[in-house]
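Annex B. Sample input.
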Amino acid sequence: MLKIKKVSKVYEGKVAYRALTDIDLEIEKGEFVAIMGPSGSGKTTLLNIISTNDVPTTGEISIEGNNPHTLKKNDLAKFRRNELGFIFQDFNLLHTLTVEENIVLPLTLDGTRVRVMKEKAQEIAKSLGISSIMNKRTYEISGGQAQRVAIARAMIHEPKLLLADEPTGNLDSKASKDVMKMLVSINEKEKTSLLMVTHDPQAASYSDRVVFIRDGKLHSEINRGESRQAFFQKIIDMLSLMGGDGNDFSSIRV
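Annex B, continued. Sample output.
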């Protein structure tokens, strides 16, 4: 469903900086893939290109057979709203709106009828266990609840591809596990393809496959077997093989 072919990214300046070099990557429909690597390895640049917030210098990406980078501005905005869902480390919720108003925001932009929006919001809130906080403002809820709200907002328009950037980065251990179990549940029930950038080996161990990037190039990848615990250990071993500073990866939580 997602194909990345020979994607490179060079940022021009007094000194040109090459962030990515000839990245090839395919993600199947319904697959959950994590991207890991040291700080500055190019993970976020790759995610920004896939999310159409940035454009590749060379190479191309296609999502469900469409190259979004060739679309005109209005068509691109519609493509992002309809095909992609986004989850961020800092939640990106609007504090002036209630939880419910934040969740239905993508539908508001599409001009969906109010009754339909309310029904969809209640349904997704129930599945994520946040029905009781729908009328609260975002500053009145916990970090774990805020990330659930962000997931609800990302999923309400049933995107084909969900992009998550450090979704557990601001959460404690329990909230992190809850959020990752939720993402796995969405991935399995809705068959939504999921691509997640993370520093957290524990979060990555919930995926089907981990792709490692170093110095803007694909370094290696490992697939999950039957045991998540064994997969977690493989991820730890790969990260230690790749080296990097201690700050590059979050503290390890089993």
